[in-house]
């Protein structure tokens, strides 16, 4: 393998670790920096703080190329490209909290041989402001590149190594060229690579907007199909058949037309809110995104109505939640539907048991008052109703005859339309999905 340029990665959270491991896999030495000394020490010992399929193995495979430290100079001394992957959570106003980004900017020295490469999701205009800060701090030689990430939790390794696009926003200087060169093996033959990734080389503001706009559009598709599902329930139509018919139209496509009990995670809720807020701060009222957010919040609560239809008042009723993470193959609990659902159920007087095969440790930090079960069957034992919240594969393959024997009631709410209705009903249970008449 030809020698590749070393890089620095500031922030060892989800995006930072996947990015670092991916470039190490491609042959770069990677200097990973984080202010959390405890996390850095654990990473040195091979302990990976997040769950992502394949990530632990990839980091173990590239341990000699991955260097962990709390000192930014360790990255500056060895690499000219510093990928920024720090958190930008929403503030109470809905704006992105850029304090961690500004801390990185403030920690940079005056240099004409280094560049910040922004992986963190930031509002459009952040690059312009950072370049202004560099000027004010006497660091005008420091370059800046926007290179948004498009990793999906649960498939992030494949997304890094097999990207559908690589977006690079820059001022047309050496820094942008260097970032493109790093990604070269993953780009299409047209761009000198052997991968599937199309290169979008553009200005900084447009690159920043690509990420926000993409996530907002996908969130819009989810809220739209959830609205269609709700209408299907009133009219007797089956939303799965409707979504299939819609998705076969090449202008629409089938992805993100899976109805359920709302989207969550670290990206969609935050980015939709951030884009709405960005528009508002600029004097534009983004009406569509207001509806996307409202539909998503209401969708999480519709399960309560479904349960009450079958059980009546929920006071004293035992409800089992299967799955807590916002999606399968991750332990991420950020904006998970289970947070709202568990709180609403308890507010209605229900007794809640829950099980998730991966996310329990994270869930315990955020959810109070529920009984965390040892496994799925333990969660649903003596339950009056079962709600599928996260469509882990192990829940799809449950023995429904055994489930029926263990439950006190018969109600199964399939919050992701992931179960086999015939198998559930064949065991004598009452099945209700989302948007299925």
Model description:
This protein has 437 residues and is of the alpha/beta class. It contains 18 helices and 14 strands. The chain has helices at residues 14-25, 37-44, 55-61, 72-76, 99-107, 126-136, 156-161, 174-183, 204-235, 239-247, 268-281, 287-311, 337-347, 360-366, 376-380, 393-396, 400-406, 421-426; strands at 7-10, 30-33, 66-69, 81-84, 115-118, 143-146, 165-169, 198-202, 318-322, 351-355, 371-372, 385-388, 411-414, 430-432. The strands form 3 sheets. It has a 6-stranded parallel sheet, sandwiched between helices. A 6-stranded parallel sheet has the order 11-10-9-12-13-14. α5 links the parallel β4 (81-84) and β5 (115-118). The longest helix has 32 residues, at 204-235. The N and C termini lie far apart (57 Å). 46% of the residues are buried. The mean pLDDT is 95.
Average pLDDT, rounded to a whole number, is: 95
**Outline:** globular
Helix percentage: 40-55%
Biggest sheet features:
6 strands, parallel
In brief, what are we looking at here?
By secondary structure, the protein is an alpha/beta fold. It has helices spanning 14-25, 37-44, 55-61, 72-76, 99-107, 126-136, 156-161, 174-183, 204-235, 239-247, 268-281, 287-311, 337-347, 360-366, 376-380, 393-396, 400-406, 421-426; strands at 7-10, 30-33, 66-69, 81-84, 115-118, 143-146, 165-169, 198-202, 318-322, 351-355, 371-372, 385-388, 411-414, 430-432.
